[in-house]
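[audit] Reproducing an earlier prediction to check determinism. Same input, same settings, fresh worker. If the tokens differ from the archived copy the diff job will pick it up downstream; this log only records the rerun itself.
[audit] input (521 residues):
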Amino acid sequence: MPIDVLDYLARHEQKELLRFVVVGSVDDGKSTLIGRLLHDVGALADDQLTSVRHASKMAGAEIDFSLFTDGLIAEREQGITIDVAYRYFSTPQRKYIIADTPGHEQYTRNMATGASTARLAVVLIDARYGLLTQTRRHAFIASLLGISELVVAINKMDVVGYDQVTFEHIARDVETFVKPLAFRAVHTIALSAMRGDNVANRSNAMPWYDGPTLLELLERVPTRDDESSRPLCMPVQLVLRPNLDYRGFAGQLAAGRVRKNERVSILPSGRASRVMAIETPRGEVNEAIAPESVVLRLADEIDVSRGDVIAGGGSTLRVASSWTARVVWMSTQPLETNKSYWLKSGTRSIRVIVNRVLSMVDLETLVDAPASVIDLNTIAHVEFRGQRALVLGTYGENRTLGSFILIDPLTNDTVGAGMIDAVTKNDVPHDGVVTESERADRLGHTGLVVNATNEAIARQAERALFDRGILCAVVDPPAATACAKAGIVAITVNPAARNAFTPEDDLPASVEAIIARVTRT
């Protein structure tokens, strides 16, 4: 019977899309599970099957399902996943995008990347070993990223003889661990990825298990939260100005819905206007709903730039320069307090300083512990201070403006990912002159005149202070007082400026003394 291609494509386009991520520790069987799922739902091409069967036979196995996803040479050589691999398949009910993420602790940053857009997380646990530290880390990161559905797949049940007691013991440990986490629903499945038990087809080897298969569960979980019920939020991506008669603001609706003639606010300025027109790829419409991409035209000539946010009534977004967040640290270089980093949130980037590290998470107990060194893969609670105000909300309220990445300004490496949990200082836009107090709040420190005994000492002090996040400069003595009033630590060389701070001979101790004197608390 001939297939109506256009009708097939139209039906395929209307299917719901579920994005999910598969996580877990090394050798728990993540790639094997995905390969088996793709195989059992018929999502693999004949040439893929032939190639993998040939490679498996050379290795002495009938078929190695992990080879369907581990495509890098290094991954096949080492038998581990290194990079995030995305795979796609569909059933008559839904379309799916799977993120296969690394289990090795060294590649936790890649796991966070793969989980950042997922709706559901499948956490694999090896039935032989139970709940490991890396498994706990992945589950905790998934909860931080706002993933609402968690599937705990206890794998390799065939290796433990399909023992019901082993399954129930691990299931109890998981239940205790995830109870404080912010998952809306947790599902536990007993399966064997290698043998296909309870992956796409129900197993006869575990008659005591009466729950759903993995595929049955994927088919019925909700595919998205109702973002349209939240207040309107659209970070401006681009200002369109093709001629003098047209001015539009392009971006993706992060939350809510926008209607023609609706009153909106522009943040951070706080100015208000009315939506005159809503334009989409399908033409002008009267209403658009998140996550559509639109161009909004406003009734008033208001200064709106890239990075500004168009917000609707009832918005909980704030304009703030200080906040706290949970941060997953992704760099081999430890996090440094009082160091300046680039922060990117939504469509805006600003410089921020780490005020202090409040605590770090003990992955065994999920209790905040005193922070010592925040290094690779540590999850910490951190207080930030922006060098200018930022439009933001908490991650629970707005995933787009409640999340951010940190970038090292010297290497351009992404060193951390954060989820905001509290705004500690609101900045209300106002007119009038800039005060010394406002300037100090923005910079994080007051100005000061420092007198060095010679040029070499002055330059060394400048470098040490600058590396600690202090705005400083070596200046001529006549300009020092004016620079200090502007919030700069002005370093002079004899003759001394009036009321200058004179450092001790010990330069490191002097730098600490200067920082203690100018830093805002």
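[audit] rerun output stored. Observation attached for the diff report: Confidence is low (pLDDT under 50) at residues 72-81.
[audit] end
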